[in-house]
Amino acid sequence: MSVTYTFPTTDALSDGLNDFVAKRSSEAIADHGAFTVAVSGGSLPKLLSKELRQNSNVDFSKWVIFWADERCVPLDDADSNYRELKTHLLDAIDSKPEIHTIGAFGKDAEKAAVDYEQQLKGYFKGELPAFDLILLGMGPDGHCCSLFPGHPLLNETSRWVAPITDSPKPPPERITLTYPVVNNAKAVAFVTAGEGKQDMLQQILEQPQLSLPCQRVKPNGPVFWFVDDAAAGKLQKQTISKY
Ligand SMILES: O=C(O)[C@H](O)[C@@H](O)[C@H](O)[C@H](O)COP(=O)(O)O
Fold this sequence. Notes:
By secondary structure, this protein is of the alpha/beta class. The protein contains six helices and ten strands. It has a single domain, classed as Rossmann fold (3-Layer(aba) Sandwich), CATH 3.40.50.1360. It has a seven-stranded parallel β-sheet with strand order 1-10-9-6-2-3-5. A three-stranded antiparallel β-sheet has the order 4-8-7. β2, α2 and β3 form a beta-alpha-beta unit. α1 packs across α2 and α2 runs parallel beside α3. The radius of gyration is 17 Å and the shape is globular. The mean pLDDT is 97. 6-phosphogluconic acid binds next to loops. Hydrolysis of 6-phosphogluconolactone to 6-phosphogluconate. GO terms for molecular function: 6-phosphogluconolactonase activity. InterPro entries: 6-phosphogluconolactonase_DevB (IPR005900), 6PGL (IPR039104), Glc/Gal-6P_isomerase (IPR006148), NagB/RpiA_transferase-like (IPR037171).
């Protein structure tokens, strides 16, 4: 199932996303005592955090945070996805979640991927991770995580976390969750904003035959799209639902 929600402004999008994530978090915590979430980089951490950081009803102490993809840079580097989430959300909340960051392996993406897969295996007790929610952005070429169009990693079936050293989006060295993990999630939410995303969003939501990386996200649970009107400008009315 895929549902697309549009919002008149990026502030309204942040509001809607806050509401949605807060609900998924409460449901997961009520069900099994934790909220396991994987988060991407790009514009997502800011859009996610804007309202969420002020939501005192969210029990962040029960959150278990992994990254959907991460750049092979130190945690305090301007390119670090961890740093983005820390700046926009983690530093602003009192109760601290369990956080799984990339190890300090410099640009060695292979070592970082092996280490991150071990972290996943440790937390999920060796079972294929079934995240309560994976939060993804959509790249202008239709990529998500660090899974890029035409890249051999699109066909990875055994590794849970893969290294990439030729990412077309800098920096080139990264680690990424693979489809076996992404598609085992209980829910995935894409978040994208801005006029620059219009054409790609239209292709992804209305031309499924293209088989772009975002279109290969077919998890066990639903896929939600949170987009602003600027990004939704070329979508047909019937593609859009009311939040
Ligand atoms: O670390 C990264 O680069 C990403 O996780 C990547 O997949 C990102 O989410 C998209 O490129 C969308 O980024 P924007 O929302 O900034 O366009």
